[in-house]
Design a protein that fits this description.
elongated, binds S-adenosylmethionine, 355 residues, Rossmann fold, 2 domains
């Protein structure tokens, strides 16, 4: 296919040369990289001048010139690499990839190749292969059990907070590959539920799109506070371990979730408070805790401030003191409650509010 513009080039062109060309064009948009480019041009001019001098001397002395230390192509390649690493250092992956995690974020494969889905007897829906379970690498039985446990907690909140469980429109916000959403499907036909899943990871969404029936709607979202739904569309929006990793734009996210909720609809999300802080502190010698949080954070026995953000956009942890979260969420929702973590598992609190 002949490219018609740079976008087409990124998607369909074959050679690394085109990639380098495009990468260079992008890199040149950054002022620091532009300066680097100017320095590179100056270096090239000096190399050319030196080559000419060497050649003159060689001719005069009638002996072969020394080969130039740095060939222009090599210098150019180095400059491109430096420019790209500068871009990577200054920007997270997100602007480069249109504020979501595209299919080829982890592998240069389009479309992605998945291991076969896992079929478990008695389950209506296939399970994602282990590689697509994202942080839930235990056995199939564990994966199912914890997902069902959390779905039951959510259903309990819904039963308590809504006049009826019938004909609900339910969104799993940050659904990953459907670990919790799958369990709502068991009763969806009986109750007339319309199920929707949204995640910024196109790969996880793509897995569900390929392997689950069409009546479960799944969409790739973005890190920007925008949801592709009409206002007043959902009775319930829940999310497990999503606001725990949403570092920025809390207010506009809450407003966006509020917009798509129906009046009286419920927002149910888990968050990190002092509980989670303590949990990480108690486990601060564990590799997984150290991997999730910087050593500086793990040294504090109690939360040192009203809220703490740690890490890059796609790999971060966000903590709010319970009282601060309550005050903040109450700006956007009514009847807000911050509930303690469930007894059996999870160090995360649940926040429940209503539009
Ligand atoms: C820790 S995982 C939890 C996944 C799932 N809720 C579960 O409990 O298995 C957090 C998920 O939220 C997604 N996510 C983070 N920010 C998001 C956003 N702004 N919109 C939609 N999904 C988001 C991530 O891609 C990831 O799949």
């Amino acid at each position: 296919m002949k490219p018609t513009n740079d976008l087409a080039i990124t998607q369909y062109q074959d050679g690394p040369a085109m990639f380098t060309h495009l990468a260079r064009k992008i890199a040149l948009m950054v002022p620091q990289v532009r300066r680097l480019e100017e320095e590179r041009n100056a270096a090239l001019r000096r190399i050319n001048a030196l080559e000419r001098q060497i050649s003159d001397i060689a001719q005069r002395q009638e002996r072969p010139a020394e080969p130039a230390q740095a060939q222009p192509e090599h210098v150019m390649q180095q400059a491109v690499e430096q420019a790209l690493s500068r871009v990577r250092a200054e920007y997270t992956s997100l602007p480069r990839f249109g504020y979501h995690l595209p299919l080829d974020y982890e592998a240069l494969t389009l479309p992605p190749a998945f291991d076969p889905p896992v079929m478990v007897e008695g389950e209506k829906l296939p399970l994602p292969p282990v590689a697509e379970r994202h942080g839930h690498a235990g056995s199939d039985a564990d994966y199912l059990e914890w997902g069902r446990y959390e779905k039951d907690i959510l259903l309990g909140f819904m039963r308590e907070g809504l006049p009826s469980l019938d004909h609900l429109s339910i969104m799993d916000f940050g659904c990953s590959s459907g670990r919790i959403l799958r369990h709502f499907y068991d009763d969806a036909a009986d109750h007339g539920w319309a199920l929707t899943g949204v995640d910024v990871s196109a790969r996880r969404i793509e897995w569900m799109r390929r392997h689950w029936p069409r009546d479960i709607q799944v969409y790739t979202g973005t890190f920007l506070p925008h949801l592709p739904f009409e206002s007043n569309s959902f009775d319930v929006i829940y999310g497990m371990s999503v606001f725990t990793h949403m570092k920025y734009l809390w207010d506009t996210w809450l407003l966006e979730l509020r917009r798509v909720l129906k009046p009286g609809g419920m927002l149910i999300q888990s968050i990190h408070t002092e509980h989670a802080w303590r949990f990480f502190y108690d486990n601060n010698q564990q590799a997984w805790a150290q991997d999730a949080l910087g050593p500086m954070i793990l040294q504090h026995e109690t939360m040192p401030s009203d809220f703490v953000y740690f890490g890059d956009l796609d790999k971060n942890q966000v903590f709010w003191k319970r009282e601060i979260a309550l005050e903040f969420w109450s700006r956007y929702f009514r009847d807000v409650r911050v509930l303690p973590p469930p007894e059996r598992y999870s160090y995360q609190n649940w926040v429940i509010g209503r539009k």
